[in-house]
Amino acid sequence: MSAHKLKKIHYFLGALLIGYILLQPFLDVSAFLGLPVSTIIRAVIIPIGVLFILTMPHTKWKTASVFYITFLAIVMAGHLLNNIIVKDPISLGAEVNHIVKTIYFPIMLIVYAMLFYSMTAVWDFRTKLVKYIVINTAVVAFIILIAHITGTAKSSYHNVLRDGHTGWFFSGNELSVILAVGFSFVMLAFLLISTKRLKWLMLPGMLLIIWSMLNIGTKVALGAAVLILLLELLLLFWKNEEQVIRFI
Q1: Residues 6+ apart with CB under 8 A from 83
Q2: What pLDDT, on a 0 to 100 scale, did the predictor assign at position 51?
Q3: How far does CA 57 lie from the centroid of its chain?
Q4: pLDDT higher for 246 or 238?
Q5: Angle made by CA atoms 139, 150, 171, in degrees to the nearest 5
Q6: How many beta carbons lie within 10 A of that of residue 118, not counting itself?
Q7: Which residues of 143-152 are buried (b: 16+ CB within 10 A; e: fewer)?
Q8: Is the backbone peptide bond immediately before 89 cis, with ω within 30 degrees of 0?
Q9: By C-alpha distance, which of 134, 136, 222, 144 is closest to 186?
Q10: N or C: which terminus of the chain has fewer CB atoms within 10 Å of its end residue's CB?
Q11: Among 78, 80, 49, which residue's Cα sits nearest to residue 66?
């Protein structure tokens, strides 16, 4: 295969991985609804990510990544073989599902680290990444709102004395962290926007995200919302220090 064709395949796979970021809230909702869609798609995206790394130009990071993924594949193959021998009866579907869930995070962490390293030179990837994270965070907040309106939201706590819900998502703490990170990017995007019209358009989404963080009912979400808003005020003061002093 020619170097030019290999490069085109590499960038095509990179585009797929970038688009995959936008699917995350919907995959989580499908898992909440008990649909096997998320597991199937994640099982497919793993080899796509590995192929993306294999089509990269040769670097020491590529070599280290390939070595780790190969070692992990050998360990998981040994784990599966051992279970086939030892377990009786055995469910191959359950075993494969467990392996996919186990290897998904470390492999995709490496894949996206290499994606950021590789694609930054081609696209304005930092801007695109911020935009996609802002969209994802707004989608998560909107799903929580729909679940709240329809009365189908999952409670954040098993204790009836504690209030809060996670919409159509599972863990309240994990969701709080996701919204906290996403909200920080939303604030960053708000600061970088120069036109007042776009700022006003973003405002309803920001308020919805804040409402969602408060509605989860965890200290992580509440603390993150308060801290990020305080930091936002400090940054706005620093950015417009002379105007604020004149106003005072």
Answers
A1: 90, 95
A2: 94
A3: 26
A4: 238
A5: 55
A6: 21
A7: bbbebeeeee
A8: yes
A9: 134
A10: C
A11: 49
pLDDT at 245: 46
Model's pTM, two decimal places?
0.80
Q: With both helix axes pointing from N to C terminus, report the angle between 125-150 and 196-216 in degrees, rounded to the nearest 10.
A: 50
Paired tokens of 218: 């965890």
Name the β-bridge partners of 155. 165
What DSSP letter does each residue of the chain carry, written as one string?
A: --HHHHHHHHHHHHHHHHHHHTTHHHHHHHHHTT-THHHHHHHHHHHHHHHHHHTSPP-HHHHHHHHHHHHHHHHHHHHHHHHHHH-SS--HHHHHHHHHHHHHHHHHHHHHHHHHHHHTTTS-HHHHHHHHHHHHHHHHHHHHHHHHHHT-PPBS-S-TTS--B-TT-S-HHHHHHHHHHHHHHHHHHHHH---HHHHHHHHHHHHHHHHHHHHH--HHHHHHHHHHHHHHHHHHHHHTHHHHHHH-
